[in-house]
From TrEMBL:
Keywords: Membrane, Transmembrane, Transmembrane helix. It comes from Qipengyuania mesophila. It comes from the Bacteria. The chain crosses the membrane at residues 35-52, 64-82, 107-133, 154-175, 212-231. This is Zinc transporter.
Amino acid sequence: MLMLFAVVLVVSGALVVGAAWGIYGRLTERLEGFLVALAGGALLLSVTSELIEPSIEKSSVLHAMLGVGAGALVFAVCDYWINEKWGSEGGGGLLAAITLDGIPENLALGVALIGAGGMEVAALAGSILLSNLPEAAGGAREMAEDGRSKGKVMALWAGTAIILSAAAIIGNLALEGVGEGTLAVIRCFAAGAVVASLATEVFPQAFREDQHWAGIATALGVILAFSLGSLSGG
C-alpha cells in the first residue's frame, strides 16, 4: 500500500510540477516537442513490456488482443467526441483530452502494481512521469495564454492530478482479487487506450513542434524505458 501511494504521488505530482513549469517557467516549442517525443517513446515500450507481454504470458494472446483493440476503440470514440464538442485547442477540451489520456495510464499503473515488487513497475511509472511533465507544461501554458488566471490554471491541474491519482488507486484496490484472464483484458484495455493516445495526440504534437529531432527523441525514450525495464528485471 505504501508503495502504491508513493508511486501515485510521484507520477501525479509531475502534472502539478509540469503545470507550474509551463506557467511560470520558459519552455520553447522545440524543447517541448523533444520532451513529448522522448516520453512517447518510453511510454510505447513500457505499455508493451509491462502490460501486454505479461498479460499474454499469464493469460492468452486472445485476451490481450481483445483488450488492446477495445481500449484503442473506446479512446478513439471518446477523443473524437471531445474534439467535436469542445475542440482540441485550449480550455476545457484540452483538459478533457489530457484527463482522457491519463486515466488509462494511471489505471494501468495501479493494476500493474498488483503483486509487484519494489522495482517491477519502474519502467511504466517512469514513462508516465516523463509523459506527464511536458504534457502538463504545454497544456497549462496554452490555458494561461487563453486568458485564464494562473491560479485557476494551477487549481485545474491539481484537480486533474487528484482524479488521475484516484484512477490508479481504484485500479489497484478494486481489481486485486480479479482472475488473471479478466486482469489481462483490463491491463491490455488500458494499454490499447494509451497506444491510441500516442498515435493521435502525443507523436503528432511532437512532430509539429520539433520535426527534425522527434524521431531521435522517440528512440531515446525507447532506450530509456528499456534501461529502466532492465533494472526492474534485475
